[in-house]
Amino acid sequence: MFWEKKLDAWVEQIRTVSALPLRLVLWNGQQYDFSTQTPEVTLKVPQASALTSLLNPSLANLGEAYVEGKIDVDGPVKSIIKVAGSLAANSLSGDSTLSRFVRSVKHTKKKDAEAIRYHYDVSNDFYKLWLDENMVYSCAYFENGDEDLASAQIKKIDHILTKIKLQPGQTLLDIGCGWGALVLRAAQKFGAKCVGVTLSENQYALAKERVERAGLSDRIEIRLQDYRDVTGTFDRITSVGMFEHVGLKNLPLYFSHINKLLADDGLVMNHGITSTDVENGESPYGGGEFIDKYVFPAGELPHIGLVLRTMQEGGLEAFDVENLRRHYAKTCGVWADNFEARSDQIKKLTDEKRYRIWRVYLAGSAYAFERDWISLYQVVCGKSNRSAQSLPWSRRYIYDAA
């Protein structure tokens, strides 16, 4: 049959360039081993129609086939992702397939709210099973590399608040406040008066509950609000894991609105995922397409160069930039391990499709950060044209405080 010849040729092509610990099992019982190694991963194809995705194994095609139940995969999830990445890299060729295309996404308040709720409003209990006890859903900071996740997340928050020199009595706006961990820490340890905004109804409800339980309602206000609707003046502003939802074309507006809300001598921390493609393109081999379709609808990642440029266009001067890519690779790896360890409990909280999406998304993100397909930058900035004498002479203040 035609498909048999094509499949035989494809398997042989892969074998000649890479020895993968992979076994392919077809609906008729036929098996293909991709090396002499003991298979770590078994890919099962239950029907002939699924071969289309397999013979064009972009990460988008493989991911879609898996989450839609067209194929099944057995093995450790990190091995599954590694094998999928190798299949894509060794099978695809040509600029049209490998290039990091740039999507143009129209962002409105309504669409952005829908996208946020799709991702974050799965259920709070779902996230509790694999995040740390404070439910911090962003890159942790492993100062020494041997911290557990909870400690590394607290260190991340303290690292941010120390970088922006947060002082008792100052006002802090946290854009995209999640379940409230940063504003709680800012009020409890640093003595700040905080406003946290989110578009997720689940996050809003739990963050308010946590603030009330901590007895900090007089120091922290949680709002279900778009950042574009925030008014007032704040001494400090943080945005952690949020600007990925803003949109490339909206970045100058985003930063100019932050500038408008910032006190003249204030400081801002923007902590977010970036593309490593200088043209702001997607992750290679279709990884970005999968994320857009199943995980973060309408999300867009700018290159750090675009971040710094649009900050300046928005009237902000960057004065400290730190790359935490390796920290996010480790963070996502721990999340993926937690997800695997609690898979039975997670399956009771959501359907099989959602389970499969998050399973490959977490492990796939660790893989992407590890290989420099995407990165994570913390950028501290303030209003342009401020006195140069108002800034610290070195970064020592960050580490002396710790």
Automatic annotation (TrEMBL):
Task: Specify the DUF7884 domain's residue ranges.
Answer: 13-91
Q: Which CDD domains match?
A: AdoMet_MTases
| Keyword Lipid metabolism applies | yes
InterPro entries from the UniProt entry: CFA/CMAS, CMAS, DUF7884, SAM-dependent_MTases_sf
- What are the alphabetically sorted keywords of the record? Lipid metabolism, Methyltransferase, S-adenosyl-L-methionine, Transferase
Superkingdom per UniProt: Bacteria
Pfam name, any one = CMAS
Q: Which family does it belong to?
A: Belongs to the CFA/CMAS family.
Q: What is this protein called?
A: Cyclopropane-fatty-acyl-phospholipid synthase
User: Whose protein is this, by species?
Assistant: Herbaspirillum lusitanum
